Amino acid sequence: MSEPTETQTRIDEAIAEDRLSDVARLLRELGTREIVHRIEHSPRRRAAVVFRLLPKARAVDVFEKLGTATKGELIRGLQDADVTALFAELPPDDRVTLLDEVPATVAQRLLSGLDESERGVTTIMLGYPSRSVGRRMSPEFTLAHPEWRVAAALESVLADVDRADTIYAVPVTDGERRLVGIVSLRELLANDGDTLIGDIMRPVISVTASEDAEDAARLCSQQGLLALPVVDRETRLVGILAADDASRILREAEAEDVARAGGSEPLRRPYLSTSILRIARSRVVWLLVLAVSALLTVQVLEVFEATLGDMVALALFIPLLTGTGGNTGSQAATTITRALAVGDVRTRDIAKVMLREVRVGILLGLLLGTLGFALASVVYDLSLGIVIGTTLLCICAMAATVGGSMPLIAKKIKVDPAVFSTPFITTFCDATGLLIYFSIAKAVLGI
Predict the structure, then answer these.
(1) What b-and-e string marks burial along 234-266, b requiring 16 or more CB atoms within 10 Å of the CB?
(2) Which entry of 189, 234, 276, 422 is 20 to 30 Å from 363 by CA?
(3) Is the same domain home to 116 and 177?
(4) Residue 97: pLDDT above 90?
(5) Which residues touch 246 (CB under 8 Å, ≥6 apart)?
(6) H-helix or E-strand containing 258?
């Protein structure tokens, strides 16, 4: 998909020359995946032209497979009648995600175009917190009851095959819709039709609808579940998170973490089809935050201006020391953020993590400090070597401890750990490292 086909090139040429009948004819030569790729990687106007020329049935299929950001852009560019029909064809969880992408006035118009039952389901999902699994679950599922026979359960599965998000995992509920177990389609097919569901159902792992969607998706992935049931506070079944939806949530979360670790917000569309203004907006906020926080470093240098004046050689080592501290902190933060994501550590482990990271930092500091001491002593003198070696030891210990604890603190106060990532920790360690450096220099050199 990276290189355009001959047909796709001809489509681009026909659109540029406004030969719309030729575009419609050429689109019939492309598969659905190719059309989705073409729309996703096209500027807004060209994407809208391609979409409008699709037959109605195919347009619905293509629209469902598009990314949320692209759907939002198309919604704003299509006529009301087309929008209402497309929106109604989407699964409820996709509708809710799309409503977060469009302006409030458009969202209200989309909701009003649904029939009463579909509007009710969508509105209920909108009532859950924005990043909760309740906003990403599917309320369309098939279920069984413990007193049912296998034959009855299979009939229910067949009846729901077109409606349910997945039929491979069937939740089992009691008469009050409380979740009591789960049974797979394989188990239903492998047992006699007269077997009771209660005899073959297994204990079930579930999450409440208000839990974080990323945590729920990771649980689903780690446990290898076909579907993760979602319940309310009274353990009544309200939806399921299918394995493919869980994978999509994790991919989105990874893209967000990678972008924020680099000091920007994730792009919602492919890079080449994203406007220059949107790319700039994704970066400018972080640049402003980091520029303001970098003033701390300037203030520290101003405080120790006299110290630098007394011994200019100290200034030569500032890039080495600040770079080492920032890199050490970033390494620790990345390691712990990853450990948090896969469940290796919890927020309650912060004391253990800090103790572990301070020891790692001391070990790294001893290695780097010894090298710094030797080089500075040879090039300058013994006293400056002591300053550099001791500072590297202290900075590495401090940066590793701070970098390791920041993601856990962020998680504890319900902030995305990626926010406390590379750029922020680097800036913090720069300012703190300079304080340590000049304090040691004044003590050792007597200036």
Answers:
(1) ebebbbbbbbebbeebbebbeeebebbbebbbe
(2) 422
(3) no
(4) no
(5) 216, 217, 218, 220, 221, 228
(6) helix 243-261
On whether both 242 and 370 belong to a single domain, the answer is no
* pLDDT value at 53 more than 50: yes
Q: Which helix (H) or strand (E) holds 230?
A: strand 227-231
- The answer to whether position 265 is within a domain reads no
Residue 241: which H helix or E strand, with range?
Answer: strand 237-242
Please report whether residue 358 resides in a domain: yes
Judgement on whether residues 123 and 191 belong to the same structural domain of the protein: no
pTM of the model: 0.66
CB contact at 8 A, 438 and 307 = yes
DSSP state of 265: P
Spell out the alpha helix ranges (H) of 17-149: 20-27, 32-40, 44-52, 56-65, 68-77, 80-89, 92-99, 104-112, 116-126
The domain of 86 spans 6-130
Question: 143 and 172 in contact (C-beta within 8 Å)?
Answer: yes
Query: Which element (helix H / strand E) includes 181?
Result: strand 179-184
Sheet holding 227-231, edge to edge: 207-208, 227-231, 237-242
- Tell me which of 6 and 317 has the higher pLDDT: 317
292 and 348 co-located in one domain: yes
Answer yes or no: is 246 within a domain: yes
Q: State the pLDDT confidence band at 1, using cuts at 50, 70 and 90.
A: very low
